[in-house]
Amino acid sequence: MKSSYRGVILLALILFASIVCTQYTVNMYFAQRYMEVLLLSGATVVLFPLAWMVFRKDQRDRREQGK
Question: Which listed residue, of 8, 26, 39, 57, carries a Cα 20 to 30 Å from 19's Cα?
Fold first, then answer.
């Protein structure tokens, strides 16, 4: 079965945002800017469940189209 382009694009954007947040977290840690580290770490933690919800919705939509 084919994936919807919307789901794939959203997951790619979320992955990109996660990589960017992780990189900024490491950079801010070495710059000793700990408040920014906490905020960016929180953003990274929030992005994973968001990606999971997009993935599950895409899977559900694909199953419904197959019926």
Answer: 57
Domain boundaries, the chain: 2-63
Q: Is the dihedral of CA 51, 45, 17, 26 positive or negative?
A: negative
Do residues 46 and 21 make contact, with C-beta atoms less than 8 angstroms apart?
Answer: no
Residues whose CB is less than 8 angstroms from the CB of residue 33 and which lie 6 or more positions away in sequence, other chains included: none
Residue 62 in contact with residue 25, Cβ under 8 Å? no
pTM (2 d.p.): 0.83
Q: pLDDT tens-digit profile of 13-66? A: 999 999 999 999 999 999 999 999 999 999 999 999 999 999 999 999 888 887
User: How far apart, in whole angstroms, are the C-alpha atoms of residue 60 and residue 54?
Assistant: 10
